Amino acid sequence: MLRRQLLMAGGALAAMPLAGTARAQETYPNRPIQMVVAFPPGGQADVTARPVAAALEKLLHQPVPVVNRAGAGGIVGSASVARAEPDGYTALLALSSLAVLPEAERIQGRTPAYTVDQFAPIARITADPTLLVVPASAPWQNVAELVADAKKRPGAISYGSAGNYSTLHVAMAMFTNAADLDLLHVPFQGGGPALTALLSGTVNAMASGPGPVLPHLREGRLRALACWGSERIADFEGVPTFIELGYPEVEFYIWTGLFLPAATPAPIQARLRDALREACQSEALRRTLATAGSPVAYQDGEAFDRFFAADSERLIRAVRRIGRLD
Fold first, then answer.
1. Residues of the chain with CATH 3.40.190.10
2. Record: fold of 32-127+255-322
3. Exposed/middle/buried for 19, CB within 10 Å: 0-12, 13-18, 19+?
4. pTM for the whole structure
5. Helix, strand, coil in percent for the chain, rounding step 5
6. Nearest one of 279, 209, 289, 254 to 48, comparing CA atoms
7. Residues 147-168: pLDDT tens digits?
8. CATH number for the domain running over 131-236
9. Are 190 and 164 in contact (CB under 8 A)?
């Protein structure tokens, strides 16, 4: 009888963590969910994260603070989420550079701070063709004039990016490789600081998602010369694609997506995915993001998995062409 009682007690104790986990999943979320952006304020990830977080707060009835954890072109913030407790309370609002940065670390001879398989993809939120922008005071009215000037003055024309191997760097590298140009790359800690440098005249050009640069284009402070999409952007009908201009391999999109640590229980992933899907269907969020120049391009499940895999493969090839940076 004693043996039977001990076995029963042991079984009850063994079941307690499982019961606790089940209850935690059933009540998720019951405290704030931290949304990490691995870049400073003002860039594409930040511009998307803030209205998305506000929409999720209303649906989940919990605060969703946006935390900018910048450093190493996005590595610091991304790695912090990869190592976070997989309980659904730390999420990453990532850019397409998520898959690029570990490969860049390998190229540089370093051990990656994280790997893509440490994340569970929840959903894609936006997918914007990138714009090539220059100050309105710049002498180039089109890409042909920029290319001609760059050929005459190798290394004299600079462009800013969100850091080495960042989305903005990879996009520009695609163009400079295709046009055989020698431009000076100036890496910053994120798209926001790079844009500030462009507006102040510290750098001469940059690639950007539409959201951060749209207000400055409307105010006439910046000029868009081309876009990296397969077709022209609806709000920028006068801006040609690089493909139109004779660069068929120059195509790039800055997309944003939400990720959780890979070991996060499936029911918690599903709860957050359902809330994000509902948020992205709301007219309020769609209007906010469209006004910011980044319309919703929601995608989840197998469709997002396929997109993420194909896009990552294409970007990793581009990073390998960039090679080691000393």
1. 131-236
2. D-Maltodextrin-Binding Protein; domain 2 (3.40.190)
3. exposed
4. 0.80
5. 50, 20, 30
6. 289
7. 999 999 999 999 999 888 888 8
8. 3.40.190.10
9. no
Tell me the C-alpha distance between 257 and 105, whole Å.
22
Residue 18 in this model has a pLDDT that exceeds 80:
no
Contact (Cβ atoms closer than 8 angstroms) between residue 251 and residue 229: yes
Q: Structure tokens of 274? A: 């359902």
Joined together, the tokens standing for residue 193 give 């600081």
Specify the length of the chain in residues. Answer: 326
Which parts of 84-217 are beta strand (E)? 90-95, 119-129, 131-135, 158-161, 184-187, 205-208
DSSP 242-308: TTTTT-TT---EEEEEEEEETTS-HHHHHHHHHHHHHHHHSHHHHHHHHHTT--EEEEEHHHHHHHH
Work out the number of other CB atoms within 10 angstroms of the CB of residue 323: 10
Say if CB 81 and CB 91 are below 8 A apart: yes
Instruction: Take residue 42 and report the two structure tokens written for it.
Output: 């003002």
Would you give the DSSP letter of residue 186?
A: E
CATH 3.40.190.150 domain residues, the chain: 32-127+255-322
Q: Residue 112: is its pLDDT beyond 50? A: yes
